[in-house]
Amino acid sequence: MVNDMRRLNRTAVLTELMRIRPASRKQLAAASGISAATVTRAVEQLIAEGVVVEASELVSEQRGRRAVLLDLVADRAFVVGIDVGASNTRILLADLVGTPIERRELATPVEADAAGLAAWLASAARDIAGDRWDHVAGLYLGLPGAVGRDGSTISNAPNLPQVEEPGFHDLVRAHADRPVRADNDANLALLGEQHFGAARNAPTAVMVTIGTGLGAGIAIDGRILRGAHGVIGEFGQLPAGPLGTRLELMVTGPGILRLAAEAGVRLDSPADLFATDAAEPVRALRAHFDQAMLIVLTAATVSCEPEVIVLGGGIAKSLARDLGRYETVLEHHLGAAPRLTASELGDFAGATGAIVAALHEVYRGIGIDERAFGDLPVAAEAEAR
Amino acid sequence: MVNDMRRLNRTAVLTELMRIRPASRKQLAAASGISAATVTRAVEQLIAEGVVVEASELVSEQRGRRAVLLDLVADRAFVVGIDVGASNTRILLADLVGTPIERRELATPVEADAAGLAAWLASAARDIAGDRWDHVAGLYLGLPGAVGRDGSTISNAPNLPQVEEPGFHDLVRAHADRPVRADNDANLALLGEQHFGAARNAPTAVMVTIGTGLGAGIAIDGRILRGAHGVIGEFGQLPAGPLGTRLELMVTGPGILRLAAEAGVRLDSPADLFATDAAEPVRALRAHFDQAMLIVLTAATVSCEPEVIVLGGGIAKSLARDLGRYETVLEHHLGAAPRLTASELGDFAGATGAIVAALHEVYRGIGIDERAFGDLPVAAEAEAR
DNA sequence: GACTTTGGTTGCGTACTGAAATCAAAATGG
DNA sequence: CCATTTTGATTTCAGTACGCAACCAAAGTC
Q1: Which strand D bases fall within 7 angstroms of a protein CB?
Q2: Residue A110 dihedral angles phi and psi, to the nearest 5°
Q3: Which of A133, B38, B150, B326 could form a disulfide with A129 if both were Cys (CB 3.0 to 4.6 A apart)?
């Protein structure tokens, strides 16, 4: 316990530096409430550890000595975020402060078995990192399935069954020779949108992804909700409509096509459902879709009262102009409604979130207070890229 | 920052003492990882503050000096929890460690205006406290409406509109001359069940209360979810059934009677719906009810994957023997299901939760780590009463 | 070039901790 | 019945880290 004070102050200074990056010693002292002397000593230690450097001096028109700006050593560590989709895999490489450096989009080798997929993922990560590989601190995978709290056991991934193989996680880790963690892709997409996208400054938010399936991530006070069995966000399992059909079968791409076929309506693609000049039978289908969507949105709203609900996935793109209408109905039903908005990061939301999650692991490792993760404005940085 | 170490250790010792109450200095040192010397000094301070006392010595058959057991000064402070229902008001008085001392059940003066109700509540609190009133640290109100995060602004309380009056909270505080806080009654009922009832040891839990209305409280990792507008847990707003009726109108007492009347079935009371020897038309109604219940339960499950869902309120009493069936269906739909169980605290769940919430305020005041509130086994104590 | 202003560092007294020695209070056993 | 053992609590003491304040450093101002 005797060393605690020192560690506490180190953490406080480092955390504050992340928040107001870059910053001078004086700023850090003021922001953290720690005396200037102690900040000097803490910074000294952080510099010795190689976590922090003295960057350029602050140029100002004031008189007096110029403040020395401190910053994290951005290239001290890199992280790889991989969103492994059922058809495409998106990969991002970012540095310690979240600046994206490389992005790739590859076809997922769906025919490969668990071992093959694991090897492919590891080599893709090595590939995107190039000669920075030595500094890659870890990989984070977004997977289309339920991932246990530990970030390694995977279940219920019908669209990519390989990853359910018990040894899959270990295989990736062995091939990459790096720490590997995983999470549900919807969770990561939300995390991405919260830091870099449509849910900025919304610690409590929901992201609903509608494509070939329906998934949702829920974040409360900046923390992603994770359950033991991955049923969180499975709003698609709610029954809806006259026949009690599962919502999932009504709002997803395949579901729309199937319902249309059953109703004797011909749709070339799910997007046709949202055409403004649609014919009457399509309109009726559309009404059913809207009803189903409202159930999803209502369920999401009453489950945590998010500040914003982000809609992602293929179907969501067609919904942009209906969000205002949905909002109005929600407001009318519930008395209060979250802001509805389309995903800003699109296909790369998951990979971006994987980067964020990976960075959080790194930050944990260098001793940043976990409770501050929500405040870290990595966003501003990456936006400016 | 220089005083931090001392306060930190004081907090750690006090928190540990709450967990393993009563305990010797040595136990506290071992449990908290703080050196015995420091524990001695911290305890010295706590005793001087009047927060802790040396209780009886630990009698053991070992040789050696006997450990002096320390305990909180239970009668240092009392709290009053009041569950203000639309018809009945339940009041509890408890001491600092959560031992219930008095309980009352009174008819709510529904005709009174805001000022009258406030005065009545304050005098009821004074009354139950008796000569302990001087030591009452605060009041906590459970209200049938949406309560803002601050615990004072109240809205959307159709069944007890007086409490929506802007000055209501201040009036109670003025009459009681004590800190007063409020929360939604469903939230408090859940808090009560988590500490003393059916959701013991379930930091993530949902409580659904079905009576004249439908309300739900959600707790995640020991923290009650609170929204700005009180729509959290409003699962009753979900549409269900062929006509898209709001669930609230299908599973609550009045709703059941109305639906029965519409279907031309005569029910004397909502409970008749659950008779095992019911006639065919009643059975059909019952099937609709079950469907609606399953939507509520599914929505609750996918919103946070609770370990347990507690069912409370009048209707829930009739459901006891169906919980297993519901569980099976949930499990089948979602692959995993929470435990379903009936409320253990019954009508007093809300008041009990108010006590817990009030105690948390007191604990915060004497410097116990908020993150430990979930671990405080106030439960064991009160059970033994 | 002295002065002012601002940022960072160093010296010093204070406060608090943990390890170990010591004191306290019980049972044991010859 | 008293020395011994055992266990719990306290005190002593050395060490660490803090904040304050004095001091150094580096810039602009007059």
Answers
A1: 5-12, 15-21, 25-29
A2: -65, -25
A3: A133
For A78, phi then psi, to 5°, come to: -125, 160
Q: pLDDT band at B379, cuts 50/70/90?
A: low
Going edge to edge, which strands form the sheet with B223-224?
A: B223-224, B214-220, B205-210, B308-312, B339-342
Measured distance CA(A359)–CA(A351) in Å, rounded: 12
Residue with tokens 């408890």: B94
Which residue segment(s) compose the domain that A296 sits in? 199-343
Q: Which of residues 320-379 of B touch A (CB under 8 A)?
A: 333-336
CB B67 within 8 A of CB B27: yes
CB pair distance less than 8 Å for B334 and A227 = no
> Sorting pLDDT into bands at 50, 70 and 90, what band is A382?
low
In the 22-41 stretch of chain B, whose C-beta falls under 7 Å of nucleic acid strand D? 24-26, 36-37, 40-41
Terminal Cα-to-Cα distance of chain A (whole angstroms) = 42
Minimum CA–CA partner of B6 in chain A: A5
Same domain, yes or no: B220 and B339: yes
Instruction: Tell me the helices (H) and strands (E) count for chain A, helix number first.
Output: 13, 17
CB A89 within 8 A of CB A124: yes
Cα–Cα distance for residue pair B127/B287, rounded to 1 Å: 47
Q: C-alpha distances in angstroms, B164 versus A130, A334, A377, B99?
A: 63, 18, 38, 31
* B131 and B14 both lie in a single domain: no
CB B120, CB B379: distance < 8 Å: no
Do B361 and B330 belong together in one domain? no
Does residue A384 surpass a pLDDT of 50?
Answer: no
Q: Among residues A44, A72, A100, which one ends one of the domains?
A: A72
pLDDT average, residue stretch A307-326: 91
Q: Judge if B205 and B293 occupy the same domain.
A: yes
In this complex, is the C-beta atom of A295 within 8 Å of any C-beta atom belonging to chain B? yes
What is the spatial distance between Cα A131 and Cα A128, in angstroms, rounded to a whole number?
A: 9
What CATH number did the domain enclosing B261 receive?
A: 3.30.420.40
Query: β-strands A339-342, A308-312: how paired?
Result: parallel
DSSP A294-342: HHHHHHHHHHH--SEEEEESHHHHTTGGGHHHHHHHHHHHHS---EEEE
Chain C, protein-covered positions (CB within 7 A): 4-11, 15-20, 24-28
A238 with B295: Cβ contact below 8 A? yes
Provide the domain count of chain B.
3
A225 touches chain B (CB under 8 A): yes
User: Are B361 and B339 in the same domain?
Assistant: no
CA angle B185, B187, B190 (to 5 degrees): 110
Which of left, alpha, beta for A223 (phi over 0: left; psi -120 to 50: alpha)? beta
Residue B169 shares a structural domain with residue B294: no
First to last CA, chain B: 42
Final residue in a domain of this structure, among B24, B42, B72: B72
Q: Do A239 and B298 touch (CB under 8 A)?
A: yes
* Cα–Cα distance measured from residue A308 to residue A102, given in angstroms and rounded to the nearest whole number: 29
Q: Which of B9, B298, B336 sits opposite A238 (nearest CB)?
A: B298
- pTM for the structure as a whole: 0.92
Query: How much is the pLDDT for A240?
Result: 77
Residue B63 and residue B112 in one domain: no
Calculate mean pLDDT across residues A290-302. 93
Examine the domain organization and report whether A213 and A324 are in the same domain: yes
A287 lies within 8 A of chain B by CB: no
| SS3 label, residue B113 | coil
Chain centroid offset of residue A13 CA: 26
Tell me, what CATH number does B60's domain have?
1.10.10.10
* Rounded distance in angstroms from the CA atom of residue A46 to the C1' atom of nucleotide D23: 25
